[in-house]
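Task: sequence design from structure.
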């Protein structure tokens, strides 16, 4: 984590994010945290073997590149979702947002907490879809960007950590389709019995533990 320094912009974005994270649950206006990661695709060209010392050896494998994963979690319910894409451009971000709002068909508007990548904008929708479709998605989205260098404010990082341990870490997958299938299976199992995220960091704690962020001293 990069240590935040005195910044009115940082303080404003941080407190906005924290206020939103602690809003009472409202099914018509759900709050979702969104982030992305990647998984390397690998497959064996020749089967692995065990040497004389009992050590497993992979003499030859094929690397299929990195596959981006777009992950979201609704902290108040614990529900999660994930999708893979061939790249990580604004078009893929737009597709991820379309998929996300589709998971909340009865919601009037979905608030999405996310980081400040230059692809994470409403304009991405218009780069990916016809104007009418882009506008329909835009009207159901409210994007809230966390401060720069403050990924620790995004609860989606918790979701990615859980997903990585359960599906990604130490698992060799040869194709994007195989990765997608494992994700779908794990998420379906997880969402059958999700657990809300107990997020205790709030504005009061931010002010007491990060006073250096605020340009005007908190004692004034």
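Answer:
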């Amino acid at each position: 984590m990069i240590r935040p320094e005195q910044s009115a912009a940082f303080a404003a974005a941080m407190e906005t994010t924290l206020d939103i994270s602690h809003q009472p649950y409202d099914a018509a206006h759900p709050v979702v945290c969104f982030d992305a990661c990647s998984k390397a695709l690998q497959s064996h060209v020749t089967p692995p073997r065990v040497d004389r010392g009992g050590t497993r050896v992979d003499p030859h494998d094929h690397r299929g590149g990195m596959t981006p994963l777009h992950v979201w979690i609704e902290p108040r319910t614990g529900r999660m979702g994930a999708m893979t894409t061939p790249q990580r451009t604004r078009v893929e971000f737009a597709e991820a947002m379309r998929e996300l709002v589709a998971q909340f068909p009865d919601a009037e508007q979905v608030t999405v907490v996310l980081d400040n990548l230059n692809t994470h904008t409403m304009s991405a929708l218009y780069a990916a879809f016809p104007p009418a479709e882009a506008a329909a998605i835009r009207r159901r989205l409210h994007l809230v960007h966390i401060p720069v260098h403050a990924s620790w404010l995004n609860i989606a990082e918790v979701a990615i950590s859980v997903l990585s341990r359960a599906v990604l870490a130490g698992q060799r997958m040869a194709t994007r389709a195989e990765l997608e299938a494992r994700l779908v299976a794990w998420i379906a199992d997880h969402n059958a019995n999700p657990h809300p995220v107990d997020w205790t960091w709030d504005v009061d704690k931010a002010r007491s533990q990060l006073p250096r962020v605020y340009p005007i001293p908190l004692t004034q």
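DSSP finds seven helices and seven strands in the chain.
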